[in-house]
Design brief:
six-stranded parallel β-sheet, 17% strand, 40% helix, alpha/beta, 15 strands
């Protein structure tokens, strides 16, 4: 079977967890899949990320980079189908949640972004200018409409958590049997402190709390900053480091909040951090905080745990599912509680050590090799089934082409 994988959305150093997901998946597929052929649809900028010596993997460079959304969509809706037919592709895999129309083959899609299911509630921020407002709302409208269509047309849907699977079933009325839950993994060898002799020097001289997240409003970075003001007021010496790319200039609002709270010397926005450098940030952190309203998976939680860093999470979305009983939780509606939980971890050595040990064990249960092996099984299972797609009248027709019970987090 020949499988095409669309990697056009990945911009090196800019795509965050999406880049981590696809780089690790393709690397493991190239090691484990001894049967199928793969066509990687990439850009000039990201092609080196997906380079492999495996002769069954080839690349098609479609665009210079992922920076132009318009050019990517034009390719996907005007050129992609012809490419797949010309290359005799049997299965098209979309890692980032949307399928173009007119595919001449079967399809699988990974859904790993719950943000747009209830965008109005999770993302009240609408930009600083009319142009930003327009872009944000058009993006939300695009994903809302294309996701529903994608869920209907895909032969199989890969959800990265049970939380995500339930959301798809509830909001888009996807038949549960069509959804396969496959967890992401963590590169334990990259993050575990005992396996990091060649890491860069300490990225920050003072003791610090770490957040790793693109600056989306649903990450609740503003609430973490407000809570951190109370941490500072209690006399703790720590700084707060926030590593992640900006989103529609939201950073300016956060910087204003930092200024208003007189935290300019204690809260630091370090911008996007490369995948090569991020393990050093985790290694030296004394606490990792991820208190999102919405998360489809929450990979940085596992990276922190693999690094031996105690973790504080929200009680929302997939985070308790992924963290299990290896993290402390907090009520994101109560910044006093967020501050209290930060202080508990930073001052209670027994608690901190317990979280480190439990986190270490929890991270070991998420393996990219297992992710890739189950992905291969998923791809192969699709090839054995006739393709059913909805027609334009809402009926179903045959296309002419052949084409866990998880422990709860600690309170």
């Amino acid at each position: 079977m020949k499988i095409a994988i669309n990697g056009l959305l990945v911009e090196p150093g800019q795509t965050g967890g999406g880049e981590t997901f696809l780089v690790n998946l393709i690397e493991r597929l190239s090691r484990l899949d001894t049967k199928n052929e793969y066509l990687l649809i990439v850009t000039e900028a990201n092609a080196p990320l997906f380079a492999t010596a495996n002769p069954r993997f080839s690349q098609y460079i479609a665009l210079p980079s992922a920076k132009s959304r318009a050019r990517r969509l034009w390719f996907e809706y005007q050129t992609l189908a012809h490419l797949l037919k010309r290359e005799s592709v049997d299965l098209y895999y979309a890692p980032f949640g949307t399928l173009p129309y007119g595919l001449p083959c079967k399809s699988a899609v990974t859904f790993q972004n719950l943000l747009y299911i209830d965008f109005a509630a999770t993302t009240p921020y609408r930009g600083r200018t009319p142009i930003s407002w327009l872009k944000i709302n058009l993006q939300a409208l695009y994903y809302k409409t294309t996701t529903r269509s994608t869920m209907r047309r895909a032969d199989k849907i890969w959800a990265v958590s049970n939380t995500t699977a339930r959301a798809l079933s509830d909001y888009y009325e996807v038949t549960p049997s069509k959804i396969e839950v496959i967890y992401e993994g963590v590169s334990f060898e990259r993050f575990h402190p005992e396996r990091q002799p060649d890491l860069p020097e300490r990225p920050f001289a003072d003791r610090y709390v770490l957040m790793v997240a693109s600056l989306y409003p649903n990450k609740n970075i503003d609430k973490a900053i407000i809570a951190f003001r109370r941490v500072v007021d209690r006399g703790l010496p720590h700084h707060l480091l926030i590593a992640g790319n900006d989103w529609h200039h939201y950073r300016k609002d956060l910087e204003k909040l930092v200024t208003r709270l007189h935290l300019g010397e204690r809260v630091h926005f370090v911008g996007g951090v490369s995948h090569e450098d991020i393990p050093a940030y985790f290694k030296h952190a004394e606490l990792f905080v991820m208190i999102s309203t919405v998360e489809s998976f929450g990979l940085p939680v596992l990276e922190a745990m693999a690094s031996g860093v105690p973790v504080l999470i929200s009680q929302r979305s997939s985070l308790p599912e992924i963290a299990g009983n290896a993290a402390l939780t907090t009520d994101i509606q109560n910044t006093n509680h967020i501050a209290d939980q930060m202080v508990r971890i930073l001052t209670d050595r027994a608690l901190s050590n317990s979280l480190r040990e439990r986190g270490h064990n929890r991270a070991r249960s998420f393996d990219w090799n297992e992710t890739a092996a189950r992905a291969i099984d998923l791809f192969n299972s699709i090839s054995d089934k006739p393709r059913i797609v909805p027609d334009f009248h809402g009926k179903e027709s045959i296309d002419e082409y052949r084409h866990p019970n998880v422990p709860t987090a600690t309170h």
